[in-house]
Design a protein that fits this description.
Two copies of one chain form a homodimer.
Chain A: H1 7-10, H2 16-24, E1 30-31, H3 44-57, H4 59-63, H5 72-86, E2 93-98, H6 101-112, E3 118-123, H7 127-134, E4 139-146, E5 149-150, H8 152-161, E6 165-170, H9 184-196, E7 200-204, E8 229-234, E9 246-251, H10 252-266, H11 271-283, H12 286-311, E10 318-319, E11 327-331, H13 338-347, E12 351-352, E13 354-355, E14 369-373, H14 379-396
Parallel strand pairs in A: 1-12, 3-4, 3-6, 6-7, 7-8
Antiparallel strand pairs in A: 2-9, 4-5, 8-9, 10-11, 11-14, 13-14
Helix pairs in contact in A: 3-11, 6-7, 6-10, 12-14
């Protein structure tokens, strides 16, 4: 049969990251391409005990249909936690449990953007979100990143020249892939610009709790007195991504439309994972758990940076320093062709990294970057992987 | 802030069913409005044992990211089960694990329908699916149901007069809400029509395993030699809806686009629920479990029908006989106003039923039907609920 596809999906292709993950599934390949939490970061014993308690003491809660808004105790707990700890949430806000933060991006675009409307995103930015917007026929306007966050002059010029921009998509902390954290000053100015041009901000904060250096910067959502910001939180990086539990905090009028759209996408987020998240926050020492994660990732990041210094920097690779998150954003010297480096890395050296252009709005633009992940590989794999990349660079040196 | 919503969601409102479910949450209200499995139908001990085994023996499988396509052993098991038991799946087909069957409907519409394209659905039909199509700006063409399924003459006339129909949505077994099962003859003719007019069929089969009377009718998908049919299966009614695990079997070319769209909606379905479904099929006696469900629902259906005979039929209510599923579709006599009956039922008598117009494409059309569910209420609640409806009808009789 000759399928007549919708316009919105004609140009959609599987994300380059997930395609590379398929190579990475080869046990011989050292994967520095994923964004998976370290397996040792999962509180497996606690989760096993919690799941067992739920399924023996009140199985029907976990097995029966729930409401689209989410498991009520988890909604209440997150609302007060986010208010107390991050000053997020005002009287006009409401909270929705989502099937991972990815769903918040898709729902935001679905309720705000007509086919042909535009979204401003940081360039580079998280490919999953960009594809989510693309899947709804949204056009993307990439605004370059600076060392303290999005370029505000370029942002304002985009807002001035396009009347169909519906929201600005930002990852303010340890941005994926650049690792950059937006300064407080820029967060205030970003908020003011959004207000002036009547556009929503979608603030995606999966890595905010994974700071191992420097001082926390308040969320853009903590400034929101006007109902401008949709905040996307997630348990994927701080508890377990396989649970697929995230949450959106947004003005109730806006969230109501997202709830209706979620209802017709997956009815509600799976109950057992929601109750596990709630019980984990309630009965385990959540702050201690976060400290433990920070200590795991801090060690891994330091090892990765020292290996980069040792094996890649001598061949002209540069990188941005990081204070948290899961990634290091590296740049090849001009003499080396980035796409062939990434391809040869996985084929010849069996090391998977993500080519930087995957994160651009226009993937055909020249790009010298590649992204390294330090959360997933073991220390041994990091050693092997970076050494092999160094070896490859040696053969590509002039 | 003045939110500029997308056209597709401007007219979307929460489903009438879920609004009534809110009343039904009042513990005083007898709910005959849900579509929840009977709590005693959950194999809670088996699920608790399986979850405990997974989380102690291989927790990382359940907690780490998975692939968008789904948990590989479950995909393989379902593919061979559906082929052997139902002759579903050809060489050109592939399988995707979804976050409930609802996601299959949304993904089908997303990949096939532009804003303004049309979908043919049975009238009445499942409100969740209709709203899913509406949420993507799809226009709905309702084709009336007959006692053996959709009216084929009306269907062909719709296919002839609209060139923008992308698929036909059907629930062939124990349709929600009408309870009707499409005859084999109609299934063959439906397939032939879809082929002639080059439209896809989306076959939604959540209740197929819940037949307690009569003989199984093969799925439309079992006829599919041309790659016309997207089959939507689900564990919601046969295992547990809170797990949110369903699956789509569809031609690989078509499914590939659905996979890309799912990737940007929720990355993948939660792992622990997927592995629970797989282990349940693998280690428990699945056919025996299905027999047990059929016996539970058969008893509940018989009780419901006898109560209807006793308390509602004397006041002029008629209903269609059923051979499976979870619902009875009742009709009020012409002298009684259906919307006020449903409203007075929940407010005065504290019994929630679903007004029939909720299942129509045009909810403003006159409708004398209401839907009763017999899977969720206890026997005691069914007695109370139907008696109270009888009492209400008495006050509304001329």
């Amino acid at each position: 049969m000759n399928y007549r596809f919708a316009e919105r999906v004609k140009s959609l292709n599987p994300s380059a990251i997930r395609e590379i993950l398929k190579y990475a599934a080869d046990p011989e390949v050292v994967s520095l391409s994923a964004g998976n939490p370290a397996p040792e970061a999962f509180p497996t014993n606690d989760i096993a005990a919690i799941a067992s308690r739920i399924l023996t003491e009140r199985p029907v809660d976990a097995l029966q249909y729930g409401t689209t808004e989410g498991y009520e105790p988890l909604r209440a707990r997150l609302a007060s936690y986010m208010k107390e700890k991050h000053n997020i949430g005002r009287g006009f806000d409401n909270i929705l449990i989502t099937s991972g933060a990815q769903q918040t991006m898709e729902l935001a675009a679905k309720v705000l953007c007509n086919h042909g409307d535009a979204v401003v995103c940081e360039a580079p930015s998280f490919i999953g979100s960009l594809n989510s917007f693309r899947s709804l026929g949204v056009s993307l306007i990439g605004v370059p990143m600076q060392s303290d966050g999005i370029d505000l002059a370029e942002l304002e010029s985009a807002l001035k020249s396009h009347s169909n921009i519906k929201f600005i998509y930002t990852i303010p902390n340890f941005q994926n892939p650049s690792g950059i954290t937006m300064s407080m000053d820029k967060r205030r100015k970003l908020y003011a610009l959004a207000k002036r041009y009547n556009v929503v901000i979608v603030e995606d904060n999966p890595y905010g709790d994974l700071r191992f250096d420097g001082t926390d910067v308040p969320a853009v959502k903590s400034l929101d007195e006007d109902g401008l910001v949709i905040y996307a939180g997630s348990f994927s990086k701080v508890l377990a991504p396989g649970l697929r539990v995230g949450f959106a905090i947004a003005p109730a009028d806006l969230l109501q439309k997202m709830i209706v759209c979620k209802q017709v996408e997956d009815v509600h987020t799976a109950m057992l994972p929601q109750i596990i998240c709630d019980e984990f926050m309630k009965t385990c020492d959540y702050e201690n758990h976060l400290n433990n994660l920070r200590s795991i990732y801090s060690k891994k990041a330091r090892l990765m940076l020292s290996l980069i210094e040792q094996h890649l920097v001598p061949h002209g690779v540069t990188y941005d320093n990081i204070q948290g998150g899961l990634f290091v954003w590296c740049r090849l010297p001009k003499t080396i062709d980035m796409p062939s480096f990434c391809k040869r890395a996985v084929i010849e050296q069996k090391v998977a990294v993500v080519p930087g252009n995957a994160f651009l709005v226009d993937q055909d633009l020249p790009c010298q970057n590649f992204r390294l992940n330090f959360s997933t590989p073991s220390d041994d794999a990091m050693h092997k992987g970076i050494e092999r990349l160094g070896k490859l660079l040696k053969t590509m040196d002039y």
